[in-house]
Design a protein that fits this description.
about 40% helix; Aspartate Aminotransferase, domain 1; Aspartate Aminotransferase, domain 2; globular; 2 domains; about 350 residues; alpha/beta
Amino acid sequence: MADLKRYDLRSDTLTRPSIGMRAAMAEAEVGDDVYGEDPTVRRLEEQVAQFLGKESALFVPSGTMANQIALLVHTRRGDEVVVGEGTHCMHFEGGAAAAWSGVQFAVVGRGGLFSTEEALGAIRPKAEHLPQSSLIVVENTHNLGGGRVFPKAECERLAEAARARGLALHMDGARLWNAAVATGIPAHELAAPFDTVSVCFSKGLGAPVGSAFVGSREHVRAARRFRKMLGGAMRQSGILAAAASYALEHNRERLARDHTAARGFAERLRGVPGVELAPVETNIVLIKTPNLDAHEMAERAAKSGVLIHAMGSHILRAVTHLDISEDDTLEAAALLAHVFTS
């Protein structure tokens, strides 16, 4: 077992800093960011705001914090937030929305995608005995949907309809970089319909830590206070910001290789008895096992050297990333196919 080669496809958060990234971190010029005096953090924030076509950005420790800040910025306690099925800020953030913002969710659509008509159908009329709709959240790409890209045209329709009704829009763009590469549409165009956007540096881009909350100067001013309240204000965080800047400059275009590897992985499993595959759009492969226990299959796969994540009783997830080559991904798929058929 000690000599068994391991193929870790549990998540794209598993990547480790490259030699070049470590050098950038070691050489980073730093200051106290709580005082606004860390030049590397300030450069990163300017860089991200420019990439996404927004006025301002705020560096935060995690995507969860960025999303929770968005809820705090756009809502009041007792409000209702319209989201797609399985949206991260509702499903994977430890109930933080209830604890910090005091909001509830109205879930629309299937697989993380929804139409403007579905969203509008969930908006509450103004009445004192009803929760008030104040925000619509789009996750792009959608994790539980299998890395699905939310169509740009639908985002634009959604934004027009929401603004006409006084609602704000936030994009959970933790994997927005993947959506941009997959569609060939620049990130700033995908972000344009939204008031605020969160993006992550520690997934496909390969930085060890960090996300950003991006929006208007007014939104970011409010976000800075909420970051402090949530314990996310850091001091000489330019060491981390340097890794994020390096990731933005060196690792965005290479995401296409992860997408190719994911398609190859899925193709190798296609036709395996007992396995159903969701369409692969980016770097996430959802493997549905309607007649097999996903947790048991993940344990069996691990014994063969393939680490994948059980997302539910009958769903497994494999995620390609920069620390696993396309050849290794295909080898992992062959091993997994053997696990399913043995």
